[in-house]
Amino acid sequence: MRAPPRLYALVAAAVLSVVGTALVPTGATASAASASATTTASVAPADAPSKRSMPSKASKASKATEPLRPNAAAPPKLRASGNKLVDENGTTRRLLGVNRSGGEFMCVQGYGIFDGPVDDASVKAIADWKVNAVRIPLNEECWLGLSHIDPAYGGTNYIAAVKALVARLEAHGITPIVELHWSHGTYTGGDSHCPDTAYATCQKPMPNAQYTPAFWTSVAQTFKSDQAVVFDLFNEPFPDRATSDLTAAWKCWRDGGSCPGIDFQVAGMQTLLNAVRAAGAKNLVLIPGVAYSNDLRQWLTYKPNDPAGNLAAAWHTYNFNTCSSESCFNEQLAPVIAQVPFVAGEIGENTCSHGYIDRVMAWLDAKGASYLGWTWNTWDCSSGPSLISDYNGTPTNFGVGLRDHLKGMQ
Predict the structure, then answer these.
(1) 191-232 residue pLDDT tens
(2) What own/partner pairs with CB < 8 Å and gap ≥ 24 does 86-92 have?
């Protein structure tokens, strides 16, 4: 995503310093950096130039041992059929929901695993909006338990927490979408958000060959027996910001390797898809475009080959993106929607209102496509943007639009 200009002023407030092998936000105390995994932080995450950098209010997260209280039918095992998503019975389905940010930044900053509660009550609050899908951003270094990650928040503890959240969502009939948000690799080119570190403390232009295939192999092995879980390969690729050669950017997107303008060896979408399928997972896989997932013009041309035939195109849109008008939607998106299932993994605006997403939802509804609002976190909706003001589900002025629209569709 191309961040709105006013957010760049927040970078200085979110600089990370490296203390030994642990990442600690500047100004944080040692006790804060080693806080319990059930505690959230009230500091700005490291990716201050983007929407996922906004601070959250301090709150308590759930314990992984909390019992589940199923109150809905199990979410469907989705598969692609033509340009639609269908369930086990061949019934057409749409993914309509929210993002639940936190798993991408809390762990790498040494504050916990999730930002805010993820207990049964908090999941029920999400379900009360008539949500049927929740996207869960993840951090590959935390999942893999790399040495600079506090073990309390990484490796087996991190995986167990993600699995517990997935189980809670499914207990409420909600489709979990697990997604790689922050990844490893030093990047100093155009739109670099954390050029001074290779650590997964911000959005990188592409996945890396060093760790990302291993991440997806492990995620696929973890969830391959549960085809209700959807995989979203990479949050917002932007190889097009590293080079002026758009063809080279799309080739990088699909094939990886040594890409123009990118400092590290890239794992392309085909490599990541191969890792998922080689692990034996047949789950639905979402694959984003370039330009922070806002540009899908050559998605069909460079579409990775999937032996399982279970792919969907993923798109992100905000009012400040390049493609943010119905004329652009008709020109750039309609050809993709005509051929493959289409999921707008993030929709939002920085106006603290909902005029833009109202238009987006209306257009996507007419096409039978899916969409999820960014984000179910208690941040400042004008700079987050954030859907809620508390974890009971009280909407912001922005969130009212999504909530009322979803409830009105029932």
Answers:
(1) 999 999 999 999 999 999 999 999 999 999 999 999 999 999
(2) 92/368
Place of tokens 């047949």: 282
pLDDT digits (tens, 9 = 90+) for 351-377: 999 999 999 999 999 999 999 999 999
pLDDT of residue 384: 84
What are the CA-CA distances from residue 259 to residues 46, 250, 254 (Å)?
25, 10, 11
- Our measurement of the distance from residue 139's CA atom to the centroid of its chain's CA atoms, rounded to an integer in Å, reads 10
What pLDDT was estimated at residue 71? 55
What is the C-alpha separation between 249 and 237, in angstroms, rounded? 10
90 φ/ψ sector (left φ>0, alpha ψ -120 to 50, else beta)? left
φ, ψ of residue 99 in degrees (nearest 5): -95, 150
pLDDT value of position 381: 82
CB 371 within 8 A of CB 363: no
pTM of the full structure: 0.86
Separation between Cα atoms, residue 12 and residue 110, nearest integer Å: 19
Orientation of helix 156-171 relative to helix 120-127, angle to 10°: 40
Which structure tokens are listed for 332?
Answer: 């750039």
Across 174-189, average pLDDT: 98
Q: Phi first, then psi: give them for residue 221, nearest 5 degrees.
A: -65, -35
> Nearest 5 degrees, angle CA 294-CA 204-CA 117?
85
pLDDT at 190 over 80: yes
Q: Left (φ > 0), alpha (ψ -120 to 50) or beta: where does 292 sit?
A: left
**Confidence at residue 393, expressed as pLDDT on a 0 to 100 scale:** 98
